[in-house]
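Progress report, Aim 2. The chain analyzed during this reporting quarter is listed below.
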Amino acid sequence: MSTGRRRQQQAARLREFDHQGLIFDVTDAGSREADCMVLLHGFPSTARAWDGVISALRGRFRTLAVDQRGYSPRARPVAVRAYGVRELTGDVLALAETAGADRFHLVGHDWGGLVAWHLAAHHPQRLHSLTVLSTPHPRALVESLTRSWQPLRSAYALAWQPTIVPEIVMLAANGRILRAGLEASGLDRSLAEQYATQMRQPGALRAALNWYRAAGRAPRPLFSLPPVRVPTMYVWSTNDPALGRAAAERTAQHVEGPYRFEVLDGVSHWIPETEPSRVAALVDQHASANR
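Predicted C-alpha cells for the chain:
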C-alpha cells in the first residue's frame, strides 16, 4: 500500500470495510494520529461492548471496534466452515490493512480473545501488544480440562454444537432464555436485552453459534497454537462462570514474551461492560509501555 493512500485512509473515519465480499461495521474513535488499537468483542455482544472503555481511554489511541463476522448484518455467511479461526483472524488483518495500520495493539474479550491469541501466535510482527480479557490461552484451556472443573464450565459449548435446536430454545419467547442466561452470568439487564435483541435478527444467532461449531469441527488450528512472543497482558475475573482459575493460571506457560497477569476479584465474565474504567486503565498502561 502506498504512503499516500495510507495517509488518506487514516485521515477518514472508518465506518465499514470489505473483506472477501463481506461488509463489516466499524466504530472508529480517538485520535487518528495515535497508535491504532483494535478491539474484538465476544459472544453474543457487538462493538458496543467497548463503548465505556473507548470513552475512558479519552482519545489516547485510535480505537477500532468491529462487529465481527456474523455480527455485522452484511458479513453473515451461512456455512459453518466460514467461521473458522483462520477466517476470523483474516478479518482482523483486513481491518488493520484498511485502516493503514502496519502494527497495532490488539484487545480481545471472550471469543474475541481467542481470535486475538491466534493472531498473536501466527502474526506477531503485526502487533505492538496483546491484551486478552477472560479467555485463557487455548492450550491452557485444553490442559485444564483434565485438571479442574473446567469441563462442567464448558458444557454449554457442547450443547451448542447441533444446529437449529439451540437457536430455537434460546430465541423462544422473544429471546427470554438467552436474556435470562446473560443476566444470570452478571450482565446488566439493559445490555442483556440489547444483546438478545441483536441475536433475534435473521441468521444472527446461528452465525454467532457457528463460531463454536467451527471450532468443534476443526479444533486443531485453535487448540494447537504455538507460544505467544509479543508483550501480553491477560485479565481474568474471579466470578466468571465459564472460565476457571486453572486455565487462567496455566496461561503463563504459553507466553514466551513479556507477560502480565491481572485478576479482578468479584467481577463477572463481562469485564468490558461492567469495568470499563479499570479495563481502560490497564490497557492504556500496557499499550503505552509497548509502543
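The mean pLDDT is 95. The first strand starts at residue 16 and ends at 19. These observations will guide the mutagenesis work planned for the next reporting period.
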